[in-house]
Write a structure and sequence with these properties.
The radius of gyration is 12 Å and the shape is globular. The chain has a 5-stranded mixed sheet. Helices cover 30% and strands 30% of the residues. It is built from 2 helices and 5 strands; from the N terminus they run E-H-H-E-E-E-E. It has helices at 10-21, 25-40; strands spanning 5-8, 50-51, 60-63, 68-76, 79-87. The model has no long low-confidence stretch (mean pLDDT 92).
Length: 92
């Protein structure tokens, strides 16, 4: 599924900027590639996109690296809302 639009709130933007500050240039390049893949197909197998469980069962995540991910919600068929970025520990 190719998203028509991706949205996020102020809290995500704050976490996003803090997350970017801690990345090496190599990891930033990997992140850009992952986001480009996501913009073409949110379920591309290279992203390892999956539905979360428990209290987060309405959300999905995709992998940025082995330990980091972006948590998102599909609001409409092609509208995505980014919720959180970082390691598995920071996500709610």
């Amino acid at each position: 599924m190719k998203p028509k639009s991706i949205h996020f709130d102020d809290a995500f933007e704050k976490h996003w900027h803090k997350y970017l500050e801690g990345l090496t240039e190599k990891l930033k390049k990997r992140l850009r590639k992952r986001l480009a893949i996501f913009k073409e197909d949110i379920f591309d197998k290279r992203l390892r996109t999956h539905r979360l469980k428990g209290n987060l069962k309405e959300y999905y995540s995709f992998s940025i690296s082995y330990s980091d991910r972006i948590v998102f919600k599909i609001v409409e068929e092609d509208v995505i809302y980014f919720i959180e970025v970082g390691s598995h520990d920071v996500c709610y």
